[in-house]
Amino acid sequence: MLLNERQMHLFEHWPEPGVDDDKKRGFFDQVRRLNSSYPGGLVSYIQNAKKLLADSKAGKNPYDGFTPSVPSGEVLTFGNDNFVSLEAAGVKEARNAAFVLVAGGLGERLGYKGIKVALPRETTTGKCFLQHYIESILSLQEASCKMVGDGCHTKIPFVIMTSDDTNALTIKLLESNSYFGMEPSQVKILKQEKVACLADNDARLALDPNDKYKIQTKPHGHGDVHSLLYSSGLLEQWKSEERKWVLFFQDTNGLLFNAIPSALGVSATKGYNVNSLAVPRKAKEAIGGITKLTHVDGRTMVINVEYNQLDPLLRATGHPDGDANCETGYSPYPGNINQLILELGPYIEELKKTHGAISEFVNPKYTDSTKTAFKSSTRLECMMQDYPKTLPPSAKVGFTVMDTWLAYAPVKNNPEDAAKVPKGNPYHSATSGEMAIYRANSLILRKAGAQIADPVVDTFNEQEVEVWPRITWSPRWGLTFKDIKEKVRGNSSISQRSALVINGRNIFLEGLLLNGTLIVNAVDEAEVKFTGPVQNKGWTIQHVDYKDTSEKEEIRIRGFKFEKVEQLEVNYTEPGKHSLSA
Ligand SMILES: O=c1ccn([C@@H]2O[C@H](COP(=O)(O)OP(=O)(O)O[C@H]3O[C@H](CO)[C@H](O)[C@H](O)[C@H]3O)[C@@H](O)[C@H]2O)c(=O)[nH]1
C-alpha cells in the first residue's frame, strides 16, 4: 500500500534482511496504527493530503465562492425571565445528555508542564478544572433527576478525549482523587492518535529525525473527537438509553457551566440539531467568528470561520478593513467558544455517512514564495466545530450568545504573551482566568440582591485586571440563577478585601456582612443561615513574578498568591438547622 502511494523513500535506507528486524517490525506496527485510526486509512490520508497541499500551493481560498454575512442567533441576557426559564428547561434536559471534554491538547501557548485540566480553576479553594467540571455534571444530574421524581437514577456519561501527551496524567488525576466523586464507570477515556507528518507537496510521509524506523507524527486536532466517538460505539449505546444531547467542551473555561443550563434550554426549546455557544468577539481575538456563508450557487451555512481565516476572507469579499470592530466596539461576528450542543439522533445519522471524518486543512510553513519546500514537516488538521460543514441545508444549525463575563474565560496564554495582547482584548491567561471567576460570581450575587463592593484595578505579570471580592461556591450551591436567588436573602454585603467560600447545598446568606475571609463547609442535610457581621484580617493578595522560580508554576503563571492572615472557617457535619450570627 505504501509503495502504491509512492512512499518508497520510507524503505530506501533499510539494511538487508536480518539487520534491525525488530525495528522494522515496529515500523509496521506503527503503520498499522496510523492506518486504523484514520477514517479510510492511510491511503485516504495521503490522498487528502495531496489535494490539500496542492490547494495550499495554488493559494486557493477555502471559502472561494462564499460571501460572509452576520448571522442571527439567540442572544440571552443573564438573569431575566427568559434566561431563568431556559435554565429550568436545560436542567430538565440534562439527564438526557452526555458530556464530552476534549483534552488532548498540549497547551503549547500556555507552556505549562502538566495537563491543563489539573490547573486550579481559582486558588481560593485550589480546586482544579476537572474537579469543577465533574462536580458541575454531578449537580446537573441530581437536579435534573429531582425534576422527574423518584424513578430517575440516570448517570450522565462523561467522556474525556486525551492524547499521548495528556492520557497518563489525566487518568492519574482521576484515580488519585477517586474520580472527584463520579462513579468510575461513568467516565470513559478515548485517546486520540497522532497523524503522520508530511515532508513535501507530494505528501511523502516524514521520518522521525531521531529514528529512521518511525514515521514522524503530530496532533491532528480536536476534530478527532467525532470519529473516536463514532468508532467507540458510545453513541449507539447512548441512543439505546434514550439520551438526546451530546455537549462538547474544552479544557480550561472556568465559567462554562454558568452557560450550560440555559444553552441546553435553547437547544431543547428551539429544536436545534447543532447549537454553538458564542460570546461577543473583539476583532483579532483568538476565537473563531460565527459566520453565515452564502455560496454563489445559493447554498448557505452558519459556521465557525477560524480566527486566522476571518481577516483574509473579509478582505477578499469587499471589507477592506478585514477583521475589525464595528460601532459597538466588537466584531460583528459572534465569537465561537467551542462549546457545542449536538442533538444525538441527527448526529448519529450524519456520522453513519461520514464515519466521523471532519473537513481538514493543512498549514505548511514554506521556505520561500515558490512554495516548493517546507521549513518543517506539516500534517493535516481538523477542528470539532467544523462538524456542521457536511450537514444538509435542512439541518437546524443555530447559536446562542451570552455575555463574556458570564460564560468565557479560558487559560491559554503564558504571562509573556498575555502581556502583549492589545489593550482592551482579553488576556486568556491564568491571571485573567481566575479573576474572571471572582468577577462573574460577584456580578451574579449582585444580581441576586447582595451588595458586592466594586473591584480595584491591579497589575499582575504586567496584565491589568479587575480584582473583585474572591467569592466562590460549589456547583451544588448555585447551579442556576434561580437556586442562587433563593439563597441570597436580606441585605447581605461583601467588602472588596473579602473572600467567601461556600461549600454546601443549603447555605443561606440572610444579611451577612462580610469583611474578611469566611469559609463554610456543610453537608447537604444541614441548613445554615448567616446573618450579621463577620470581620477578620482575611487574606491579602501578594504579587508574584512569573520568573520567580521559588514559587510553584501554578502560582507563577497567575502572578499572585494569597497570604492567609486570618479567616473564619465553619464546618457543619450534622443534619438540621444551624445559624451563625454575630
Ligand atoms: O489535537 C488536539 C488539539 C486540541 N485539543 C483540545 O481542544 C481544545 C481547544 O484547543 P485550543 O485551546 O488550542 O484551541 P484554540 O485556542 O486554537 O481554538 C479553539 O478554541 C477557541 C475558544 O477557546 C475558539 O472557539 C476557536 O474557534 C477554537 O478552534 C482544548 O481543550 C484542547 O485540549 C485536543 O483535544 N486535541
From TrEMBL:
Domain of life, source organism: Eukaryota
SUPFAM superfamilies: Nucleotide-diphospho-sugar transferases
E.C. numbers: 2.7.7.64
Keywords: Nucleotidyltransferase, Transferase
GO molecular function: UTP-monosaccharide-1-phosphate uridylyltransferase activity
InterPro entries: Nucleotide-diphossugar_trans (IPR029044), UDP-sugar_pyrophosphorylase (IPR039741), UDPGP_fam (IPR002618)
Cofactor(s) essential for the protein: Mn(2+); Mg(2+)
Chemical reaction(s) catalysed: a monosaccharide 1-phosphate + UTP + H(+) = a UDP-monosaccharide + diphosphate
Family the entry assigns: Belongs to the USP family.
UniProt function note: May function as the terminal enzyme of the myo-inositol oxidation (MIO) pathway. May also play a role in the salvage pathway for synthesis of nucleotide sugars.
Protein name, entry field: UDP-sugar pyrophosphorylase
Organism this protein belongs to: Urochloa decumbens
